Amino acid sequence: MTLMKTYLPVLSSVLLVATAISLPCQAELKAPLLPEETTNGKSTLAPLDPLQDQLAQNTAVLFNKKGLPAATLTWVGADGYFITKASEVPRMEECQVHYAARPHSAVREIRRDVKSDLVLGQAVTMRDVPAIQFQPSNGLTFGQWIASPAGGKHVKLGVVSANRRAIKGFGAAIGVRMDDQMKGKAKGVRIIGVAEDSPAAAAGLRANDIMLELAGESVQEYRRVNEIISQRQPGEEIEVKFKRNDTEKSLYVRLASRTKVLSNWEGEDFANGGISIRTDNFSEVIQHDMPLHPSDMGGVVTDLLGHAIGINIARVDRVTTFALPTERFWPLIQEWMQKDRHPPKALPATTASAAAPAAPTSNP
């Protein structure tokens, strides 16, 4: 107690001096930006207006038959050719292209590539669109700023957040739990549970439905169901014939990545906006942190100068999006367009007499 009384005046003096010294420093502290400049507001993004205008011209939105945005497309040919994420549009003929103020256009599918999960299509009534010419992406570095279109209107910024690499595939899934209690009693495999936000739930399957056929094959054990699904890629559609309340029905289920279904079994929106149908099995990806939606996949990725260096291919979680680098798809897309524009010419028709072999002659 005596020591406390002795040192208390000294301690008080030290605190007063420290406070006096710190006050001028606090008075000099000033935020380098105005409050409205510390967010993604108009003033902050104003320097990117030219890039936003470019991305709005180079891309469009593909709507499904329900009138909902299915994917973003990137123009690759002035005559209406585009590429987008294949697994998001399993039936392209049911979709429409919405682009700027032009009338909506029907589309035709040209080629799909399961390996890259890209599809080449053509908006049949679109002409003179500003097509992208992709540039090499080898110079892209970890931490570099990049940009992409979002929602068909805005530009999103992000950085390359990991080293480019291959993404291993873990197979496909439909999101059901099954048992073999039907075995020996009746045909089929009973569904005992359906995952939230899963392919099965989206297609309309329910608990207690009995699967009778999968992709044209009769099923009696849940192990065989898993085997049939594992042989396919996420994004593929398979027909399911099933029985509900003694009535046989059928529907199509679009498979998703197994990792997507298992990670989100209880319907937790861990991506804050959903994740893509297919999120894995890519030969090489550029990983970035742009906050995009699954329907933004298929949109071009550029540097801040507007050079196209990749295509968004999978929304993986809240902070992770994968993009395919130019080198993994652009040569293939150019080859497909060339073949579609210049198909092999038909052989000229021949007359019956020219086509028929000459009749044998006999010596007189």
Automatic annotation (TrEMBL):
Keywords recorded for this protein, A-Z: Signal
Region (Disordered): 342-364
Coiled-coil residue spans: none
Domain of life of the native organism: Bacteria
A Pfam family matched in the record: PDZ_2
SUPFAM superfamilies xrefs: PDZ domain-like, Trypsin-like serine proteases
UniProt feature, compositional bias: Low complexity: 347-364
Any GO BP: proteolysis
Stored PROSITE patterns: PDZ (PS50106)
Signal peptide: 1-27
TM segment ranges: none
Domain PDZ: start-end pairs: 159-246
GO MF term (any one): serine-type endopeptidase activity
PANTHER family: SERINE PROTEASE FAMILY S1C HTRA-RELATED (PTHR22939), SERINE PROTEASE HTRA2, MITOCHONDRIAL (PTHR22939:SF129)
Family, similarity comment: Belongs to the peptidase S1C family.
Name of the protein in its database record: PDZ domain-containing protein
Lineage, top ranks: Bacteria, Pseudomonadati, Verrucomicrobiota, Verrucomicrobiia, Verrucomicrobiales
